[in-house]
Write a structure and sequence with these properties.
This protein is α/β, with parallel strands linked by helices and about 200 residues long. It is built from six helices and seven strands.
């Protein structure tokens, strides 16, 4: 009897950070496709529900051939029920950091996997993060660096912002973009051969 072919992994993300994170656990996608979906939160939608919906919709939005395994992720930053979008300018970075200064916020790292049979599995891993009380100069310097543009809530924990965060609880890799422990477990359950 012929052996079943090894499934191909499709990463439904254009994020270089997610590719780098997967490489840390020895996973290299066979194909990368950026999903095109509406990322607007629904009226009254809670951040955790939104993050999971985004990950699932991203996974479902890419082309699946045969028994491909699809992996998608979403990183949603929220203070209470308020969802912070990606910052589109240095002014938005400064505005978001001003709102997060000295406060705890939650980063919901969601991932969704479509397995060889087409079954969708998803997980959400929440982490708590707190910025120190930021001075106007610290906010202005970080905003001017350009690092926070295109990032949820206007910061990247793996960059210069690391020097402004005085406390964190949860999954560091989740805050960066993909919680590796949970992602590996989901991929293994979906049939991706991992040691």
């Amino acid at each position: 009897m012929a052996e079943a072919p090894t499934p191909r992994l499709v990463l439904a993300s254009s994020s270089p950070r997610r590719r780098e994170l997967l490489a840390q656990i020895g996973v290299v996608p066979d194909r990368i496709q950026s999903p095109d979906i509406d990322e607007e939160p629904r009226k009254g939608e809670l951040p955790r529900i939104y993050a999971e919906r985004m990950a699932v919709e991203k996974a479902q939005a890419v082309t699946r051939d045969g028994e491909d395994i699809i992996l998608a992720g979403d990183t949603t930053v929220a203070a209470g029920r308020r969802i912070f979008p990606q910052a589109n300018s240095s002014d938005e970075v400064a505005q978001f950091l001003g709102l997060l200064s000295g406060r705890r916020h939650t980063v919901y790292a969601a991932m969704a996997v479509i397995d060889r049979d087409g079954t969708v599995r998803s997980r959400v891993v929440p982490s708590k993060v707190r910025f120190k009380r930021l001075s106007d100069a610290e906010i202005a310097d970080y905003a001017a660096s350009g690092e926070g543009i295109g990032k949820a809530a206007g910061y990247a924990i793996q960059g210069q912002a690391a020097g402004l965060i005085d406390w964190m609880q949860g999954s560091y890799t989740g805050v960066v973009g993909l919680p590796l422990f949970e992602t590996r477990a989901l991929l293994k359950a979906a049939g991706l051969p991992l040691a």
